[in-house]
Amino acid sequence: MLKLKTLIAGLVLCLLSASAQAEILYKVTKEDQTIWVYGTLHAAKKDLIKLSETAENALKNSETVWFEVHPEKIQSAQALFMQHARRSEGKLSDTVDSETWQQLTTQVEKYGMNASALEQLNAWFAQIVIVSQAIAQSGYTAEGGSEGKLFELARNSDIPVKGLETVERQIDALRAAQSESGEGELLEQTLAEVEKIEEVFADIQKTWLEGDLDKLTHYLNQNLPPKALDELITKRNNEWITKLAKVNEADTVFVAVGAGHLGGQQGVLEQFEKQGADIQKM
C-alpha cells in the first residue's frame, strides 16, 4: 500500500514559517556540457523559499530550463485530471462501510469540502484531493514552492522552459503506484493518517532545508513500497535521463525536479555519474 505520508512526500518533494535560503543544488559536468540539477520542494508557505545567488545565476546562464512538467501545462490540466479521475461505475462510498464513510465526511468538512463531491471519483484521486486540501489549509501552496519561483525567474530572464514529461504521464504514474491497494483500503488509510500531515511536513521541511539529500532519499526508500518506488521514481528518472541525453552537448541547462528524484542508486545524479559526469554539490 502507498502510505499517505509517502503521498505527501511526493506532493511536496514528490517548510518553515520564515524565509529560508536553503536548497539542494548540484553542478553536473559532462565534457563541454553543464547541467544544473535543482531538487525542488513542490509546496511551501508563502515567502519561505528564497533562491540563492548561485541558483539564480545558474538559471540565468542556461540555454533551457527543464521542469518535470511545463508549469503552464499543469495550470490547465484540471479537465484532464478529471477525465481520468471519474469513476466508470458505482459510488466511492460503496467501497467502505457506512461508519468509515461518515468519519471521512466529518474529516473533509474540516477542510471546507462536501464528501458528496468525492462520490464520483476513483479512490486514488480522492486521496490526492483530500491531502491537497489539508495541505492548503495548513498554509502550504504550490505558488510558494520552488517551481513557481524558478519559473518566474526563467520567464523574466527570457529563458526557454520545457517539460521532461506530460501531465498524462504523471497521472499514469500516480494511478499505477496506487494499483495494488483496494479502494476501501485507500480511504481507510487516508482517514487514519490525514491528521498527521503537519507532522510529516515538519520532517520533510527540516531535511530539505538542511540540504540533506541522503536523509531525504532514505526517508522515501523506507516509506515507498517497491512498486510505488518503481512507478513514481525509477521509471520516470530513466525517461528523463534518456530525454536529457538528447540535449545539445554544448548547451548549459537547468533541471528542476522534485528532490526525491535526485538521490539513491536509481536517482538522476547516480545515473549522470554512470555516464562519466562529474557531480559537485553546491
TrEMBL record:
Q: Give the PANTHER family listed for this entry.
A: CYTOPLASMIC PROTEIN, CYTOPLASMIC PROTEIN-RELATED
Q: Which organism is it from?
A: Idiomarina loihiensis (strain ATCC BAA-735 / DSM 15497 / L2-TR)
Q: Which UniProt keywords apply?
A: Signal
One of its Pfam families is TraB_PrgY_gumN
Under CDD domains, the record lists: Tiki
Phylogenetic lineage: Bacteria, Pseudomonadati, Pseudomonadota, Gammaproteobacteria, Alteromonadales
Q: Residues of the signal sequence?
A: 1-22
Tell me the protein's name: Uncharacterized conserved secreted protein
Q: Which domain of life is it from?
A: Bacteria
